[in-house]
Amino acid sequence: MSKITEIETETQWEQLLGSLPSTTLLIVSFHAPWAAPCAQMATVLETLASEYPVSDPPATKWVSINAEELSDISEAYDVTAVPFLVLTRNGQVLETVSGSSAVKVRTAIETHAKSGGAAPSTTEAPNGMAQVAAPKPEESGPVDPAKQKEELFKRLGDLVKAAPVMLFMKGSPSKPECGFSRQMVAMLRENSVKYGFFNILADDDVRQGLKEFAEWPTYPQLWIDGELVGGLDIIKEELSNDPDFLKPYSVGGTDNAAAA
């Protein structure tokens, strides 16, 4: 899977530009260490990068740049606020995204990656689901419960937006650990929905914290575009009322944010 490289000098940047094949989509994330939305965006981009396999020549290249330390590069791309994403190919700017909208960022990357022949990895399952990681912040010194909760909720806010459709379940789609999760996976598969998933049994902070964050005490939970839809019964009811409820998020669906 692809990873994000931090560009630390202008020389390193010039070497990168000189070595990239003309077909490679370059994804550049401008950030500042003091801006909280940049940390959130970093989590989103790490998740997205993990969906793209490493290839030769590279179909995508992911880098991040401190907008203040490398101000000449920032000025060259008219970076006036962070986070700021620039997508280029063969030296040409294809699109820029200002702000921390995970949906806008995913849509832009998938659109231009697809146009260049790159595609997210779909090795996990036919629907193209991808497991989402939830990196924990480094801890030092005494733990402040209020601050700890605030940081957890920031993580959860990133996680629920990591993919247009996010399933928080017990186990994985290939090995559900409860009957309700198994039924939810089957329902998504039947509707050819592309989704990200998170195994809440692997992270107790997320497992307990998401109950409070979502004000929903049980699992599985299905989130669409960063909003909680509900559990198994709610999804069944939605599909009963509208059989096309999940169609915009299916593989080959019409919703750009969920396009494969």
From TrEMBL:
<dbReference type="Pfam" id="PF00085">
    <property type="entry name" value="Thioredoxin"/>
</dbReference>
<dbReference type="InterPro" id="IPR002109">
    <property type="entry name" value="Glutaredoxin"/>
</dbReference>
<dbReference type="InterPro" id="IPR033658">
    <property type="entry name" value="GRX_PICOT-like"/>
</dbReference>
<dbReference type="GO" id="GO:0005634">
    <property type="term" value="C:nucleus"/>
</dbReference>
<dbReference type="Pfam" id="PF00462">
    <property type="entry name" value="Glutaredoxin"/>
</dbReference>
<dbReference type="InterPro" id="IPR004480">
    <property type="entry name" value="Monothiol_GRX-rel"/>
</dbReference>
<keyword id="KW-0479">Metal-binding</keyword>
<feature type="domain" description="Thioredoxin">
    <location>
        <begin position="1"/>
        <end position="114"/>
    </location>
</feature>
<dbReference type="GO" id="GO:0051537">
    <property type="term" value="F:2 iron, 2 sulfur cluster binding"/>
</dbReference>
<keyword id="KW-0411">Iron-sulfur</keyword>
<protein>
    <submittedName>
        <fullName>Monothiol glutaredoxin-like protein</fullName>
    </submittedName>
</protein>
<dbReference type="GO" id="GO:0006879">
    <property type="term" value="P:intracellular iron ion homeostasis"/>
</dbReference>
<dbReference type="GO" id="GO:0015038">
    <property type="term" value="F:glutathione disulfide oxidoreductase activity"/>
</dbReference>
<comment type="function">
    <text>Monothiol glutaredoxin involved in the biogenesis of iron-sulfur clusters. Binds one iron-sulfur cluster per dimer. The iron-sulfur cluster is bound between subunits, and is complexed by a bound glutathione and a cysteine residue from each subunit.</text>
</comment>
<feature type="region of interest" description="Disordered">
    <location>
        <begin position="112"/>
        <end position="145"/>
    </location>
</feature>
<dbReference type="GO" id="GO:0046872">
    <property type="term" value="F:metal ion binding"/>
</dbReference>
<dbReference type="GO" id="GO:0005829">
    <property type="term" value="C:cytosol"/>
</dbReference>
<dbReference type="InterPro" id="IPR036249">
    <property type="entry name" value="Thioredoxin-like_sf"/>
</dbReference>
<comment type="similarity">
    <text>Belongs to the glutaredoxin family. Monothiol subfamily.</text>
</comment>
<keyword id="KW-0408">Iron</keyword>
<dbReference type="InterPro" id="IPR013766">
    <property type="entry name" value="Thioredoxin_domain"/>
</dbReference>
